[in-house]
Amino acid sequence: MTYDRLVCANCASPVSEGRCPVCRASRERMQHEGPFAGLTPATLIALMLALITVALLAHQVA
Length: 62
What we know:
Blueprint: H1 21-31, H2 41-61
């Protein structure tokens, strides 16, 4: 899940705004989780389908 959709339980504002120390800490932690942490499930599915398509096309050519 991306942090732009999360609501802070401490201050009830979006975590992406970083209004309180809890928001800022959560935002910082989520930014450093990995290269695919910020991608939405729809984007991951699209990337997976693109890779499968490329693999199938490469197999037909060879």
